[in-house]
Amino acid sequence: MPEYRISVDQLRPGVFIRLEKTSWFDHPFLYNSFKIKDAEQIALLRSLGIREIICIPERSDVLPARKSAGAPAPESALPQETLDRLWQVKRDRTRRLKEKKQRIAVCEERFTLCIRTFDAILRGISAGSQEAGQEAMEFVDRLSLFFLDDVESTLHLMNVVDQGESAYSHPMNVAVLSLMVGKEAGLAKDDMTALGLGALFHDIGKIGLPKKLLKKRGDLTRPEQELIARHSETGAGMLAALPVFPAAAVLIVAQHHERMDGSGTPGHLKGDGIDRLARIVAIADAYDNHCNTSDPNQALTPYLALSYMFGQQKVLFDVELLALFIRCLGVYPPGTVVELTNGAVGMVMSVNPRNQLNPSVVLYDADVPKKEALIVDLADEADLRVEKSIRLGHLPAEILEYLSPRTRITYFVEPR
Predict the structure, then answer these.
(1) What residue spans of 270-414 are helical by DSSP H?
(2) 27, 130, 212, 416: least buried by Cβ within 10 Å?
(3) How much is the pLDDT for 165?
(4) What does the pLDDT average to over 290-300?
(5) Are residues 133 and 194 in the same domain?
(6) Are residues 200 and 255 in the same domain?
(7) How many CB atoms lie within 10 A of CB 385?
């Protein structure tokens, strides 16, 4: 049944409506489209001078009442304290979004500075510099300090990555994701350092490979597959030549493409024959490759990536570590774009640890300025839930720009 216009007098609880010709700033409702919950909401519409709205039958629990030929229902004034409470809820949501964006901005500045630092360290390691090896160990400590205390902001940046920085953001993503799991698993300090180093430099063996091969889309030939498969051994050899690198980190680089069922490379190791830290990096590496690919149309949302890994690739990974990885990120990790049951599109801002199917979501609304965008806690909204996740590559540019937590086009530059 198509949408149609009705009088406010026809409303009753359960009817789904959309407000027309009413600015989001002129009413205290959280949305311009919503399901009527009670008589108080109907009275509020009347008090705002709204006479007609659009009914959306397919999202309604009941249809509107028949139009009465008599006089319209008298307006009933709402208590001022009720209006004040509704407006305060709306202001609180806007304030929370502003604070979250400020934390993301700080996280992005750190992320950008770390990318610059990592670039220099990577060049030093490739040249066999012992000094660069020591700097790498200190760098891992900074990653833990900068990003593990605000996991949600960090995950946002990972999922809205600029393709121009992807060459450096991938190893950083894998390192931070691995360290998140390591922290949750209660690893000792030395193991955390080895884990961070192995994750950061897991692909260092690709440095000598042709860029054309690394960026190739589509299936690789058998010789190309064999050439790329050797990067694990090559990288491990490069790091082993630097005495400052822990042997555990070298082992991670050597084994990060091994798989639990023996289908991995280069040694076709199985199960417990694979180092536990390497198993963590294998999961983080696969996840980031699913989410951040050179072809945005092939990239999976964080939710779909986790679903695919747990549903279709479970035999490849340590199941206990994969479950721990999912617990760290949440069912709908921050940065996941979702469509809600009311048709609204939004991006997950934070995860509810006690109810992972109902995260906090910032909503897209063309009528609401980006700075005032609404955050909705699905755990508090009985009528709303996640309908599906949406790939970033499938979003119109204006929606992606609106929802993206990144606040600047150019990066923060550290003052001299």
Answers:
(1) 276-291, 302-312, 319-329, 397-403
(2) 416
(3) 52
(4) 78
(5) yes
(6) yes
(7) 13
Task: Report yes or no: 360 and 346 within 8 Å, Cβ to Cβ.
Answer: no
CA–CA separation, 54 vs 107, rounded Å?
42
CA distance 251 to 96: 43
For residues 175-184, give the mean pLDDT: 93
Mean pLDDT rounded to a whole number for the chain: 85
Are 147 and 58 members of one domain?
no
CA dihedral of residues 153, 156, 161, 167 (deg, nearest 10): 60
Q: Tell me the per-residue pLDDT of 212-240, one tens digit each, with 9 for 90 and over.
A: 888 887 788 989 988 999 999 999 999 99
* Domain total of the chain: 2
Torsions phi, psi for 21 (to 5 deg): 55, 35
- What is the per-residue pLDDT across 83-139, written as a single tens digit (0 to 9) for each? 888 889 888 877 877 787 787 778 778 877 888 899 899 999 999 999 999 999 999
Q: Which domain, by its residues, includes 225?
A: 87-331
Q: Rounded to two decimals, what is the model's pTM?
A: 0.78
Listed in sequence order, the DSSP H helices in 230-318 are 231-240, 247-255, 276-291, 302-312
Say how far apart CA 146 and CA 247 lie, in whole Å. 26
**DSSP result, 198-230:** HHHTTTGGGTTS-HHHHT--SPPPHHHHHHHHT
Spatial CB neighbours of 339, under 8 Å, sequence gap ≥ 6: 345, 386, 387, 388, 389, 390
Is residue 74 very low, low, confident or very high in pLDDT (cuts 50, 70, 90)? low
Residues 6+ apart with CB under 8 A from 35: 14, 15, 16, 17, 59, 60, 61, 342, 383
The C-alpha atoms of residue 313 and residue 326 are separated, in whole angstroms, by 14
Same domain, 124 and 95: yes
Give me the half-sphere count of Cα atoms (radius 13 Å) on the Cβ side of residue 297.
2
- Show which of 331, 359, 390 is a domain's final residue: 331
What does the alpha-carbon distance between residue 140 and residue 125 come to, in Å, rounded to a whole number? 14
Per-residue tokens: 393: 């590559």
User: What Rg value do the Cα atoms of the chain yield, rounded?
Assistant: 26
Q: Are 384 and 342 in contact (CB under 8 A)?
A: yes
To 10 degrees, what angle do helices 151-159 and 166-184 make?
150
Secondary structure of residue 304 in the 3-state scheme: helix
Pick from 20, 11, 34, 117: nearest CA to 374: 34
Whether 275 is in a domain gets the answer: yes
Chain position carrying tokens 């060049």: 123
